[in-house]
Structures are given as structure tokens and as C-alpha cells.
From TrEMBL:
Binds 1 zinc ion per subunit. The active site is at E315, H316. Substrate binds at T223, Q245, H248, H316, D349, E403, H408. It comes from the Bacteria. The keyword Membrane does not apply. Zn(2+) binds at Q245, H248, D349, H408. InterPro entries: Ald_DH/histidinol_DH (IPR016161), Histidinol_DH_monofunct (IPR022695), Hstdl_DH (IPR012131). One of its GO terms (cellular component) is cytosol. This is Histidinol dehydrogenase homolog. It comes from Sagittula stellata (strain ATCC 700073 / DSM 11524 / E-37). GO terms for biological process: L-histidine biosynthetic process. It holds the Pfam family Histidinol_dh. GO terms for molecular function: histidinol dehydrogenase activity; metal ion binding; NAD binding. Keywords: Metal-binding, NAD, Oxidoreductase, Zinc.
Length: 427
């Protein structure tokens, strides 16, 4: 190991936890009035909360046509990928025994809430990722919320993307009040069954506290990237991909895993100048992220590199390596995999299609990222006809009596007698 730094995400501090708890309680009881009050106090916003069509149209007029074209390109890819996911989920019906029929069905949630963060960068692509995916899942009402920026409200391009992706209602409301408005169904919106989308520590904590009665996509920590590079990798491109993702924030971990020591040294030496190429505060952020969170892990073999990648379970896993088929089969823990030096995580972040809302902080050990599945409930159903009844009722009755559950046994046994409820009752 050439350089090491801890890679753990910052957990919500007690302060943030308490603040969010108090805010959610106030929002639950105070509704729209409390939300307006927070919008004014925290974001200086006194304009309309439900974004009027005229504002959306005015924003669209401000978005340059080349950016509109790029967003249309990205939106088409993200939607097509999400629709393919939806098509891969087949409802089914199966006869388990003669007369015993059961099935599975995917039903979209009745309403979803998609949060689009504000902040240092305009998270235009995030709007497409959450809203277009909910749309492809077939969610009948999508509420989206984003914090106001200066002046007219939500950033114009972000607002344009939210509308393009298919948001039914757009709330100019950030942070905890935005999340709560969607979850509680404020401002005339249907209460969201699931909340999706990234955000700052207040947003993440609000989602965490609401989880249970409301579903959530994930509790996102800082974004992370692991690059696996072999002797064939171009050190300049590896350094650029590492620095590029480090611009997300100073707490974003990035790892280079390699079995080629000259490459490790070359990349390490190139990083400072590569970060500087980002310019301004982006350069400072990337450099700070690399200095605090960057790590180069030197391995002896391809298999050891794969084990390191699986152990870390990164959000983004990028292979600058040969034998891509071997890697694709071997690797088992990542949010999204980028195969080969021709592609890059930036493609996935903005435009290529697979979702960019992905598990961070090692959560890729147990889950993948945002997909249509998060907006769908996979439910089951069953029916039984005469042919199935004797065996099914007998098995149920015996198990129930062994458990001491007489009521269950009686319900089962009643099905053994004729079909009419009265006969069953007399038996
Ligand atoms: N993991 C991902 O895929 C991904 C993608 C995009 C953005 N992000 C994250 O989104 C975040 C954007 O952060 P942001 O803060 O700029 O925007 P945000 O939209 O997440 O939060 C802004 C809101 O925070 C609230 N807030 C700020 N200070 C507060 C306080 N002291 N008390 C209560 N509420 C307060 C305000 O209401 C404001 O509207 C970043 O952390 C970024 O890393 C993550
Ligand atoms: Zn990124």
C-alpha cells in the first residue's frame, strides 16, 4: 500500500439528528405553513412553493439549445434503460400442485417523491435519474422538490430537466421541508409512498427518520470510485478519472487498485497536476479529496485485485484493464461497473443510461442502485380449487395444531367440507 486514508462516511451527527427530528415534528403538525416558514428562514424563499407552469416555461426559455439537446440525449438513454429494467420484470402465475395456483405481480407505488439537490453544483442529471426512472416504473404521480437558488427559484436547467423527465408537481422547497412535503403530501400533493434522490446530511437524515411508513431508495454517503488498472492502463487517463470524480467533494473516497507498481507511482505523481487542470475551487476540492481520501493499493495478482475490489464494494468500479470478460464475471460487489478505458464514470453520471444513484460507503455488498424496482411493489396472490383442497387443508391443519394455533387449524379444516359458507360453518 503506497498511501492510505480512512474511507468511512461521516454519520449524521447528534445535532443534525435532533434538528431533523424537531423539524419533521413541526412539519407534520404545521403542514404547508411550517414548510413555507422553513423555506423563508433557511433559504430566503417567499415565492410560490408549487412551481407554476409559467415559471417552468420561463426557465426553459433560458436553457441554451445545445444543453437541451444534451439533456434530450441523456433522458432518452436513462428512460430506455429503465424501460428495459421494467420489461425484465415479468408478472407470472404458476400451478404449484393441481388446483393450487399462485402468482406474482409488480405494481407501481401510487406516488413517488424525487428530491433534486441544490448546492455547489447544479444537479441537473440527478433530476433525470430519479424522475425518469419513476416514470418508467409507471408511477402515476411524481412529486419533485428542489431548493431555490437565487432570484427566480430552482436553477433553470434543473427545473427544465425535472419537467422533461416527467415530474407532475414541482415544489420549490429544499432540505427537510422538501422531503417532508413529499412524504406528508403537503401543498395538495399525494403523500409519496417512496422518497428517492440524493442530498446533504439534513436530506439524508430526514429520509432515514421517515423510513418505515415511507420507503426510501437509499441513505447516500459521499460518492466513491475504485479504479482497477493493470500494466496496460494509461496513467494519465487513470489520474484524470480519479481527479475528475474527486471533484464531487473533499470526503469522496477514491482508490486505485493495481498489480503494476510503476503505474501506481506514475499515477501518484500525476495527480497534483491533474487536479490543478480542473481549475478554481474544483481543483482545490479534488486535491483535498485525494489527500484525505485517496488510496493506492498494490496487489500481487489479478485475483488479489478482484478480492480488494469486492472487499471495498465501491459505488463506481472502473476497469482500466484487459480481459474484461474475466473481470465482469469475477467481480461481485459494486454499484455500477465501467468496463474498459473507453468508458468513464462521468458518462454514467450524466448521460449513458444506467442510473447514477448508487450505493455508497460499502452498501454495494448488499444492494444495487436506484432502478424501476424501487418504485414497484412485487406482490403475490394465490387461489385454491377443489383439486388442491384435501392435501392443502390437511397440511395446514397439522402444522397449525403442532404450533398450538387452533384457529388456523379450524379455518383450514372448514375448507375440507363443501363449498358453501353455511356448510363450512356447520361442519
Ligand atoms: N450521491 C449522489 O449521487 C449525489 C449526487 C448529487 C448530489 N449529492 C449530494 O447532495 C448534496 C447537495 O448539498 P446541498 O446542501 O448543497 O443541497 P441540498 O439540496 O441537499 O440541501 C439544501 C437544503 O439544505 C437545508 N439546510 C441547509 N442548512 C441547514 C441547516 N443548518 N438546518 C436545516 N436545514 C438546512 C436547506 O433547507 C436547503 O434547502 C451534497 O452533499 C452532494 O454530495 C450526492
Ligand atoms: Zn461523478
Amino acid at each position: 500500500m503506497i498511501k492510505s486514508a480512512p474511507g468511512l462516511p461521516p454519520a449524521a451527527t447528534g445535532d443534525i439528528r435532533d434538528t431533523v427530528e424537531i423539524m419533521l415534528a413541526r412539519l407534520r403538525s404545521g403542514g404547508d405553513t411550517a414548510a413555507r416558514d422553513y423555506a423563508r428562514r433557511l433559504d430566503g424563499w417567499t415565492g410560490p412553493i408549487v412551481t407554476p407552469r409559467s415559471t417552468i416555461e420561463a426557465a426553459a426559455a433560458q436553457v441554451p439549445s445545445d444543453l437541451k439537446e444534451a439533456l434530450a440525449y441523456a433522458h432518452a438513454n436513462i428512460s430506455a434503460f429503465a424501460r428495459a429494467q421494467r420489461a425484465s420484470l415479468q408478472d407470472f402465475e404458476t400451478e404449484l400442485r393441481p388446483g393450487l395456483i399462485a402468482g406474482q405481480r409488480s405494481i407501481p407505488v401510487s406516488a413517488a417523491g424525487c428530491y433534486v439537490p441544490g448546492g455547489r453544483y447544479a444537479h441537473i442529471a440527478s433530476a433525470l435519474m430519479t424522475i425518469a426512472t419513476a416514470k418508467a416504473a409507471g408511477v402515476p404521480h411524481i412529486t419533485a422538490a428542489a431548493p431555490p437558488r437565487d432570484g427566480p427559484g430552482i436553477d433553470a436547467a434543473t427545473l427544465y430537466a425535472m419537467d422533461l423527465a416527467g415530474a407532475d408537481t414541482i415544489l420549490t422547497l429544499g432540505g427537510v421541508q422538501g422531503i417532508a412535503a413529499m412524504a406528508f403530501g403537503l401543498f395538495g400533493t399525494p403523500a409519496a409512498a417512496i422518497l428517492a434522490g440524493p442530498g446533504n446530511a439534513y436530506v439524508a437524515e430526514a429520509k432515514r427518520q421517515l423510513f418505515g411508513p415511507t420507503g426510501i431508495d437509499t441513505v447516500a454517503g459521499p460518492t466513491d470510485l475504485l479504479i482497477v488498472a493493470d500494466a496496460t492502463a494509461d496513467p494519465g487517463l487513470v489520474a484524470l478519472d480519479l481527479a475528475g470524480q474527486a471533484e464531487h467533494g473533499p470526503t469522496s473516497p477514491c482508490w486505485l487498485v493495481t498489480d503494476h507498481e510503476p503505474l501506481a507511482r506514475r499515477v501518484r505523481d500525476l495527480i497534483p497536476d491533474t487536479c490543478a487542470r480542473l481549475g478554481g475551487t474544483n481543483a482545490d476540492t479534488a486535491r483535498a479529496a485525494w489527500d484525505a481520501m485517496g488510496e493506492i493499493i498494490l496487489c500481487d495478482s489479478r485475483e488479489e485485485m478482484a478480492q480488494e475490489a469486492d472487499r471495498i464494494a465501491p459505488e463506481h468500479l472502473h476497469l482500466h484493464a484487459t480481459a474484461l470478460d474475466w473481470w465482469q464475471t469475477r467481480l461481485t460487489a459494486y454499484g455500477s461497473l465501467f468496463l474498459g478505458a473507453e468508458t468513464t464514470v462521468a458518462f454514467g453520471d450524466k448521460a449513458s443510461g444506467p442510473n447514477h444513484v448508487l450505493p455508497t460507503s460499502g452498501a454495494a455488498r448488499y444492494t444495487g442502485g436506484l432502478s424501476v424496482h424501487k418504485f414497484l411493489k412485487t406482490v403475490t396472490w394465490q387461489r385454491a380449487t377443489d383439486a388442491a383442497l384435501p392435501a392443502l387443508a390437511r397440511a395446514t391443519s397439522r402444522i397449525s395444531r403442532a404450533e398450538g394455533m387452533t384457529g388456523h387449524a379450524l379455518s383450514a379444516e372448514a375448507r375440507l367440507h363443501a363449498h358453501s359458507p353455511t356448510t363450512a360453518l356447520r361442519a
